[in-house]
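User: Before I run my own analysis I want an independent prediction to cross-check against. Here's the chain; please return only the structure tokens and, at the end, one sentence I can use as a sanity check.
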Amino acid sequence: MAAVKGRKRFTPHPAKIVESLTGEERRILESVLGRPSVAENVQRAWLHVQEERIRLAKSHLAVAELLNGLGTPGLISPEKRSVISRAYYATFCAARAALSFHLGSDRNDHQQLPLWLRKAHNLGSEPQRNRVSAALSQLRNTRNQADYSPFYPEPLGADARYAVREAKAAIRFCTGWLKQEARSRGQRSTL
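Assistant: Structure tokens:
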């Protein structure tokens, strides 16, 4: 019987191990491995994960912008609904990256992220944090309406434009926060 060829075996990216570590897990890993070079590699990998999240946010935003140019004005279409979804995830990924790096622990709770962000007093300015936090809450609610309800309550085009605008601002703020936080730790960001 001949061997059946299957798909190539998937090998996750090495940083996948670091991606969802809690702060305590990171500290234990660094202390158990002990050597300064290992701790530096873990810290570098942690920054790399957050930079990749920012890049993912930018790619979600690019799709949102592309979809925003499609569809018929005044018609609630799948393209316009998807603009809001992609813009929300762009905002979420950027905020998650900046906050996770700042706190040294992964933050992945969609409901809690806006609250944690508001409380991160040493991360960016308060008006910027409040704007990103408000955008996360508003875009999540809007995304739920766009994704799950056949009866969208608002003019979808205006909401799509708002979503793209807020996602752009969130990515700009969060990228700046991440770079600043990396500098304060003696690390160099590649963003």
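Sanity check: Residues 145 and 166 are 18 Å apart (CA to CA).
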